Amino acid sequence: MMDKELKREIMLDHYNHPNNKQTVEDDSYRSVHNASESCIDDITVYMKASEDHIEDVKFDGVGCTICTASTDIMCDLVTGKSFEEAKAIIQEYYNMVDDKPFDEDALEEANAFDTLYQQANRIKCGTIGIHAIEELINEFEQ
User: Fold this and answer.
1) What is the structure's pLDDT at 39?
2) pLDDT at residue 3 is higher than 80
3) Which end of the chain has the smaller Cβ count within 10 Å, N or C?
4) How many helices (H) and strands (E) would you count in the chain?
């Protein structure tokens, strides 16, 4: 379990300097737009994938710290993974934010959100980008 200061550092780093935040204007990417009714979160997630694995994931838009950081971290975690591996990572993340047993090793920096379940009003912020990634995986699989 991470200490509070490390969690804060990870979140702020991914918020202030996201690795994957950029608009994508490339037809080989598919996109999903998600917005929250209760927060400033309004993002579009872009994914490029081959037959069975994720080649790249980017996002753009406006998001609070939790939205931006969680989306950026999940982009890092699923890029290069097969659809099955990515879905397993996403499920571990959902287990974590639902306060269910989860595999800490699978989530790496996403473990910074391990107490998100204690703030019910922030769970949407921490999952809006992840839902978009999951939706894109499902689109590519069909």
Assistant:
1) 86
2) yes
3) C
4) 5, 3
Q: How many domains does the chain have?
A: 1
- The first and second tokens of residue 20, run together, are 């994957």
The pLDDT-based confidence of 18 (bands split at 50, 70, 90) is very high
Residues 6 or more apart whose Cβ sits within 8 Å of residue 86: 54, 77, 78, 133, 137
Place of tokens 């499902």: 138
Q: Which residues of 21-56 are buried (b: 16+ CB within 10 A; e: fewer)?
A: beebeeeebebbebeeeebebebbbbbbbeeebbeb
Pairing mode, strands 30-35 and 54-62: unpaired
> Which range marks the domain in which residue 36 is found?
4-141
- DSSP assignment of 55-115 equals EEEEEEEE--HHHHHHHHHHHHHHTT-BHHHHHHHHHHHHHHHTT----HHHHGGGGGGTT
CATH number at residue 104: 3.90.1010.10
- 4-16 and 65-78 helices, crossing angle to 10°: 80
The 10s digit of each residue's pLDDT in 36-71 is 988 899 999 999 999 899 999 999 999 999 999 999
